[in-house]
């Protein structure tokens, strides 16, 4: 038997693909042969250019994921542009920082809407398409170390990412028999907009670095291999797992 990580002929939807981890994942999937639908509210030109420069294929779909309004159109537009939708990476996410004693309802709702509610309904729209077409597919949720740990000053983020780990397991249990793999990646501390406040705080930055066995903040290109693996046939018997890509953080 030959193990294949080749995604030629597959179409992958990546949310929040304009920057950070989503950009790294989109580039890796394109590098493995997939056509990538870059979904988000900002210009995707930087990611499109990077993918084109390596000879890959992508197109962009404008969507604000703070509500579930665009989920149906994201799937139909992907199929219209590429002919199929085979892989969904739920990467877009936000974080709000404040002490729990001061945390507002607005910050609670904003994070839960993007990080959890839209992820569920976009996954539902994607799975409905696969089931209607009787096709297999792959869903990869971008979870967090806060799917395993508590953290501080990010109550809605921890609730959303812990919830996302549970949702990953539930959807895997419901959809594995339909040929849909649902898994998650839990990134450790990566150098992106999401963690800028931590890196700018000398004490937090030093404490975080001291605990990472690999000794450095993750770079967006270090997340792509796990995404290619979970998107490929090499992971066909893997369902409901949350795979840490964390430089060894959880092993400490
Ligand atoms: N960096 C880390 O250390 C780390 C660790 C664990 C988990 N994660 C997770 O990894 C994922 C990517 O984060 P990142 O680190 O790459 O941070 P980032 O640079 O802030 O990227 C977040 C992405 O989500 C998009 N997004 C946010 N709200 C959106 C909305 N309403 N509609 C459409 N797109 C929206 C952003 O678009 P805009 O640029 O337009 O805002 C951006 O593309 C997130 O789910 C995050 O929680 C990150």
Low-confidence stretches: none
Mean pLDDT across residues: 97
Per DSSP, the total helix count is 8
Instruction: Give the fraction of residues assigned to helices.
Output: 40-55%
Task: Give the N-terminus to C-terminus distance in angstroms.
Answer: 36 Å
Bound molecules: NADP nicotinamide-adenine-dinucleotide phosphate
Strand content: 15-25%
- Give a count of the beta strands, DSSP E runs of length 2 or more: 7
Instruction: Kindly name the structural category.
Output: alpha/beta
Secondary-structure element order, N to C: EHEHEHEHEHEHHHE
Rg of Cα set: 17 Å
Largest sheet report: 7 strands, parallel
Overall shape: it is: globular
Biggest sheet, spatial arrangement of strands: 3-2-1-4-5-6-7
Quick structural gist:
42% of the residues lie in helices and 15% in strands. The chain has 252 residues and is of the alpha/beta class.
Topology:
Elements: E1 11-15, H1 20-31, E2 35-40, H2 45-53, E3 57-62, H3 71-82, E4 87-90, H4 105-133, E5 137-142, H5 155-175, E6 180-187, H6 196-199, H7 202-211, H8 224-231, E7 242-245
Parallel strand pairs: 1-2, 1-4, 2-3, 4-5, 5-6, 6-7
Bound molecules: NADP nicotinamide-adenine-dinucleotide phosphate (NAP).
